[in-house]
Amino acid sequence: MTTTAPNQQDRQANKATGSDTRVALLKRSVRANVPLRKTFVQAVRGSACRHGPLKDFVTGRDLRALKAYLMIVAACSSGADGWSTTHDSAVWARLMDIQDTATDQAARTGAWRTLLRIQKRNLITCTRTGAKITVTLLREDGSGKAYDRPRGESEEERFLQIPASFWTKGYDQKIDLPGLALLLTIAREKNWSTFPAEKAPDWYGWSADTHERGLKKLLDLALVKRREHYTKAPLAPSGVVMAYQYTRTSVMQPRKSKKETTSAPAAGAATAKTAARSSQRGR
Fold this sequence. Notes:
The protein is α+β, with helices and mostly antiparallel strands. Helices cover 41% and strands 17% of the residues. It is built from 13 helices and eight strands. It has helices at 8-13, 18-29, 54-59, 63-76, 89-95, 104-120, 165-168, 171-174, 177-188, 200-203, 208-220, 258-262, 264-276; strands at 33-37, 84-88, 124-129, 132-137, 159-163, 193-194, 224-232, 240-248. Helix 2 runs parallel beside helix 4 (63-76) and helix 9 (177-188) crosses helix 11. The longest helix is centred in the middle third of the chain and has 17 residues, at 104-120.
């Protein structure tokens, strides 16, 4: 009996990529939007320090771990498996795109080390059994407390939403660390808020330069848009001061449910009133 050797080119052409793996994970979790407590970006008002866990990813220049953490939230926050997800270490490596620049074993090791860095920040726990790695979510504030689904009933429970399109349309592969940090920051606030760079060190924990580069990256990728906003200033030479306000573009807006769509006219009126107010406030 004659056998045919596997076609190596066909195998490579049909091998799943990191993007394929992330999209498959999103489909399995059945999430149109990924919820993330706002305390990940910034602590609640009245806290001794306003910096959230996001600050450590930014100052540590750890884009890989930040992207991996957001995917973990996407995979676990449906609660189907008790806020946990288990995959072979090779799958974890592919989720992080490590396999593109490393051997199989090095990629597996790199994935485990990345997960340990996230665990060190008290955002997850991870265990390894043979080639399998199980990751369990903890609360997004870095307190180490057990995770539960955010309900939005108090300031500590309020959450932002990342649309699945961030991954399915490949923006996760185009964005850099300052851009991703600012995307989460803008998603945390109301539409058409201001984000003064000089406040970034106090409010978020990263530099004004990082802040400005993040805003520029988002504009370049068309993930946000901005407009000029003028405030009366009697002591200013022109009598007004101008600040830019930002909001997410449609591709980064959370997908609305049918119920939300039905009540859109009333919601739109409320949004217009909110946008008319100045967002010059201490966050």
